[in-house]
Write a structure and sequence with these properties.
Shape: globular
Family: Belongs to the phosphopentomutase family.
Radius of gyration: 20 Å
Number of helices: 12
GO molecular function: magnesium ion binding; manganese ion binding; phosphopentomutase activity
Number of domains: 2
Domain Metalloenzyme: 3-382
Strand content: 15-25%
CATH superfamily of the largest domain: Alkaline Phosphatase, subunit A
CATH topology of the largest domain: Alkaline Phosphatase, subunit A
Structural class: alpha/beta
GO biological process, one term: 2-deoxyribose 1-phosphate catabolic process
Strand order of the largest sheet: 12-11-13-1-14-15-2-16
CATH architecture of the largest domain: 3-Layer(aba) Sandwich
Helix content: 25-40%
Order of helices and strands: EHHEHHEHEEHEEEEEHEHEHEHHEEEH
Organism: Weissella koreensis
Largest sheet: 8 strands, mixed
Length: 394
Amino acid sequence: MYKRIFGIVLDSIGIGSAADAAKYGDDGSDTLGHIGEYFKGDWALPNLQRIGLGNIRTENQIKGIEPIDSPVGYYGKMTEMSAGKDSLDGHWEMMGLPMMYELSTYPNGFPKDLLDKIGAFAGRKIIAKGPYSGTEVIKDYGEEAVKDEALIIYTSADPVMQIAAHEDVISVEELYKICEYARSLVNKAPNIIGRIIARPFIGHNANDFKRTSNRHDFALAPTGMTDLVRLQVAGQKVIGIGKINDIFSGQGIDEGYHNESNRDGMDHVDKVIQQDFTGFAFTNLVDFDTLYGHRRDPEGMGKELMQFDQRLGQVMSALKPDDLLLITADHGNDPGFKGSDHTREQVPVLAYSPSMESHGSLGVRSTFADFGATILDNFKLDNQVGTSFLNELK
């Protein structure tokens, strides 16, 4: 049994279209593959490659991340069974709670009665423009929002409502209260929204408006027991780093850390590795998604991955023989694909421990829930969904 398991989610780093990608308009999406093509193979992820990232695909290999003869870990990919392609359903499924019904999306904008209620509660004008890029909407409407002391409410192809406000006009605390109220309105049919996202921004005009790290996700509370709760009830310590606490509404989490950035998140991972505990530390690194995937920036996404890979080397060196590291993703967000939204992809899964004496393929897993099932299996707990691959790790 491993004493500590560290799970790191590289938010949006998919590894190729899922079998049902066409249903979502995502056939041909390939986050890692298209980043490799953008760099023409002139990039490097040596630590991920050392664990086995390049060995996952036997055909249509990722340019620059080729297979190696003797990886130090185990490698495979997982297929999502949930009905969506958002962070919430991806993470919930990893933790044994697949989302088998589709949440509400708003391709034509939000219902007027819903916006009227939010506006009345806030006492603010609402500038609601339906689906929009988060960086473009504050560029196009930020000056109006500042002038009128208004809220910008927008969405994407995902089941989210994003509420943006200038921090000097509407305080972060006030924005959070407004989001909490909006959350209370969208927990049952006909409006069931996965996440209400507070999007504070700063700046003086459209040319320099930028979103801040005070983002906060107000997620739909888990609709059943997750593997995090199962671990906690069994006496295992559960640590959430990044937006993990938000995604699970704090349920099943003993200790949480907010990330200012991916680098800050890795600083938290380094700090937690130095702690003496038995249990699971679950990390989400969201910059791949918010800064690069949605903005369709393959160069930035590739460079951010290379930066993570450098930090990964430090993590691998700090692990103890009875530690297990699991790396995966929650969905795709192909920066070389059309649009600006998440993409329905399979995700990589990598496993490494300094005590491993062998390496090999974990194959194609039929659900993200295999991730959580493996963690439960390690701590001698029964899982409800998924198949553990613990016994495959030698």
